[in-house]
Specification:
single chain, 269 residues, 57% helix, hydrolase, signal, metal-binding, Peptidase_M48, metal ion binding
Length: 269
């Protein structure tokens, strides 16, 4: 008979989770995993995500010469957001970004541990680099505030995620990878991600209400695939007002950004 030995922290966290769930009836807010296991799960999920989109010919590989300039331009935007001195796990998570070539999808998503994916359709849809930075800041916040881990915990259950960390059910990683783009976050997590997007951009040269521009533009148009940002609560109008209010509080809206690099990025996709 095969025995599975849980790490002590997993056993203790599981007891804590079970106790909290039994008392409250809802353990969704409990983060069972350590930061190290966020990274481990994220690495596995990212590898599967890469494999899935590579198989369909949609993953833009960083080592392909034709893609390298696009990544230089995108990395520059991500680097500015990450350098805002507002991230809790700036040095713990790897923080990489990859492009999925699909012009029909206007979305981005993050794995646990800081692996970010952005669809070419989103980049082409946006109008300014501020907007791109704002959307990326939103996704970075989901990873940095560990929303993705909590949402996966709620969606798939503790035992399922633990089995992946312990090397069990490796074939089920595909189920996680394909769910990330449609993962639904709670109102609390969406509001917090919007809020932190503004905070992140406040520490940069970008106009910190960049994400609001995306919501305004997306809500006004009918798209082939509705962005996940718009298919979850709260509604886009409320989110725009909240982002603008936070930007006013921090006095960081209205900055002028050179969009030459952003335009070049769009043209290379």
């Amino acid at each position: 008979m095969r025995r599975i030995w849980l790490k002590p922290w997993i056993f203790l966290a599981l007891l804590t989770y079970l106790g909290t769930s039994a008392c409250s009836g809802n353990g969704d807010g409990v983060v069972l995993f350590s930061v190290e296991d966020d990274k481990a799960l994220g690495q596995k999920v990212a590898a599967q995500t890469d494999s899935t989109y590579r198989a369909s010919g949609q993953l833009l590989e960083r080592n392909v010469v034709a893609n390298q300039r696009a990544y230089v331009l995108l990395d520059a935007v991500v680097s500015k957001v990450l350098s805002s001195n507002q991230l809790q796990y700036r040095n713990e998570f790897p923080w990489d970004v990859k492009i999925i070539k699909n012009d029909e999808i206007q979305n981005a998503f993050a794995t646990p541990g800081g692996h970010i994916y952005v669809f070419s359709g989103l980049i082409k849809f946006l109008e300014t680099e501020d907007q791109l930075a704002g959307v990326l800041g939103h996704e970075i916040a989901h990873a940095d505030r560990r929303h993705t881990s909590r949402a996966l915990q709620k969606e798939f259950g503790i035992s399922f995620l633990l089995s992946l960390l312990l090397g069990e059910n490796p074939n089920q990683l595909a189920q996680i990878a394909t769910s990330l783009g449609q993962l639904r976050f709670s109102r609390e997590y969406e509001v917090e991600a919007d809020d932190y997007s503004v905070r992140y951009l406040n520490g940069t040269s970008y106009s910190c209400d960049g994400a609001a521009g995306f919501f305004v533009k997306a809500a006004a148009q009918v798209t082939t695939s509705i962005p996940e940002f718009l298919s979850t609560h709260p509604n886009p109008g409320d989110r725009v007002l909240a982002i603008q209010a936070k930007a006013k509080e921090l006095n960081c809206a209205g900055r002028t950004t050179d969009n030459a690099g952003f335009r070049e990025l769009q043209s290379r996709l």
